Amino acid sequence: MPKRTKAIVALILTTLIWGPAPAIIKLGLARIPPMTFLFVRLLLQSIIVLPFFLHHLIKYPLKLSQIPALFTIGLFGQTFSLAMFFWAISKTSSLDAAIIGSVNPIFIMLSAVIFLRETVTRREKIGALLALIGTLIIVIQPWAESGFSLHNGFATRIAGNLLMLVYLICNTFYTILTKKNFLKTKIDPFTKTCVAFFTATVTLFPLSMIEIASLPISQLGVFGRLGILDLSLIFSLAYMILLSGIAAYFLYEYALSKIEASEVTVFTYSQILVAIPAGFLILGEKPSGVFLIGGMVIAGGIMMCYTPLRETKHPS
């Protein structure tokens, strides 16, 4: 099977895994707070991959010059972006998080033009503008649905949607840094992903401790009782660790090392096709009229930017 075909298969599997992730994360966040959930997930992921990573280092030892880049990639790809993602989902709906996240291809396409010197057409510029307008509609959707009032529900959900935008910025830096460092230092996907797990585990530990310390005593009691006994929490953690956290990341990194950054991210928008039914089946969330309008504007913009899979242009 050609490398390009393997990369596409890897991206399809990643889409099927990451699509339901917002709903599954929100299910777990009903039991424990976001930074603590994320820290536990990353800690267990790190423990699982550590023996494989140590064995891998015997064949492919790390160079001292690679460590700063790996640490920086880990900060943006795991600590910063995932912290924003989990914090956002704790405040907004899984559907809002998923549709805003689907704009990631646009952010990465524009950044790839700046940092990787990839070309962009006039059609792609118009599509990017449409997608950004659709994103703005989704961000202010709770405000519109509440009759443009300023009650607490509006403020909390808007804050969650804005945090999703911060997540997109962090994740864009992560993807661009990954691509630049693959090109310059040939860091293999396994090493990069493992070091990112370890970096995030260490850097998220203090945030988790601060979060737990700030909880009321009554909540700490509930957290302690449910921590290892609640089946929905166990399911949420297991899914995020084994599938979303390990399998999908390695598949994504493999694809990113084989084809262009802008081609990899075209699959991101298709995750919403999995996220909407997952949000309904798992959480009972239903898309509103404003959500559908914003989603259609985003979809139109993305379709203008990309064919089902944009062909790589080769010199003739």
UniProtKB/TrEMBL annotation:
Keyword Oxidoreductase in annotation: no
Chief location category: membrane
Domain EamA: 6-139, 159-305
Keyword Metal-binding tagged: no
InterPro entries, alphabetized: AA-Vitamin_Transporters, EamA_dom, EmrE-like
Record membrane topology: Multi-pass membrane protein
Superkingdom of this protein's organism: Bacteria
Pfam families (UniProt xref): EamA (PF00892)
Segments traversing the membrane: 39-58, 70-89, 95-116, 128-144, 156-177, 189-213, 233-252, 264-283, 289-309
GO cellular component terms, A-Z: membrane
Record keywords: Membrane, Transmembrane, Transmembrane helix
Similarity comment: Belongs to the EamA transporter family.
Name of the protein this chain belongs to: EamA domain-containing protein
Lineage: Bacteria, Katanobacteria
